[in-house]
Predict the 3D structure of the following.
Amino acid sequence: MTAKKPAKQKAAPEAEEKPKGRPSTFTQEIADEIIQRLAKGEPLEKICRDEHMPAVRTVNHWREGDAAFKADIARAREEGFDAIAAECLDIADDGRNDKYIDDNGMVRTDADVIQRSKLRIETRLKLLAKWDPKRYGDKIQQEHTGKDGGALQIVLSSVDADL
């Protein structure tokens, strides 16, 4: 004889059940926050780590499906790149922690702080060069010219028979 399984009892409905997982439905409120944070120089991957934010792939899906949102993201990213560049200047100009007074009362340069500032600037500049190479990348241009900036001239000479 087989025992019957007890019927599952439904839990009492709560006043407001929170949806599980990250939001996947586009809302203007979330889109506006993403745009604002991108414009301040925060990468999308970092923004999407917040619990109340959708996953990066969801935002990318929204962007591909909405031309206005796509344009807003592009504009915000450009503003964000400029914000990162301005941050580099702020880091370079901030010398408050570059010096300290040692135990003997001597003023010393803190090489570790200076190196860390250089690393912070260099990292930001390298990312800017990758993210927006037209504006922040190194322009490398090679020109081949002849004498006095004129055209190149090719001169063929006969080779000695003895060689």
User: Anything to note?
Assistant: The mean pLDDT is 86.
